[in-house]
Amino acid sequence: STNYTRDDIVKITAFELSPDESKIAFSAITPVGNLDIWVVDIDGKNLKKLTFQDHSPTNHIAKFFKRHKWRNFFKIDMYCSGWTKDGRIVFYQELTKYDIWGPNTISLRFWTINSDGTDKKPKTDKDKIFQRKPFDPIHRAEISCRSEKYKIKIILKNYDLWVLKDEATSPQKLIQ
To answer: What is the C-alpha to C-alpha distance for residues 8 and 11, in angstroms, rounded to an integer?
Structure first.
């Protein structure tokens, strides 16, 4: 198993706190330029990568084409969309076609996976989604979430995850 660090992540774009508040699942842009799914403990330990679309030939070709400002390529991204009530991570895979007309979504596929990276399977209607808070498009500049259990606020700001402990005055980076 690979030991990942913050250096393996370019930008964190979205996150969701697990139902038991012990883990954070998130989407992050890899050095290849696509989004993959990651998970980390709420104390910043055990950073784990759960999807590997950055290894796919499709995304390596996309990076090459983008660099040369060429058109007509495909890109695959993985977006974290939440957790199931029984503690599985829910995410979706988006296939996008880039051409002279711009980006166009070709397909969306929804999946669930255990937080240890095992048992990835298509999402079904039996998968009950854990809803922590309603989506608020107005306050998207700072995306945050609170863990009552660990008495901290988790904040996504400047493409990084920060934690603010209840008694602290300044936030700390979650992943070092």
So the answer is: 10
Produce one character per residue of 129-164: b if its CB has 16 or more CB atoms within 10 Å, e if not: ebeeeeeeeeeeeebebbbeebebbbbbeeebbbbb
- What are the pLDDT digits (tens) for 22-70? 999 999 999 999 999 999 999 999 999 999 999 999 999 999 999 998 8
136 pLDDT more than 70: no
Between the alpha carbon of residue 32 and those of residues 35, 49, 56, 79, 110, the distances in Å are 9, 14, 10, 16, 22
Structure tokens at 47: 């950073």
67-72, Cβ contacts within 8 angstroms, sequence gap of 24 or more: 71/98, 71/99, 71/100, 72/97, 72/98, 72/99, 72/100
**How far is it, in rounded angstroms, from Cα 33 to Cα 51?**
14
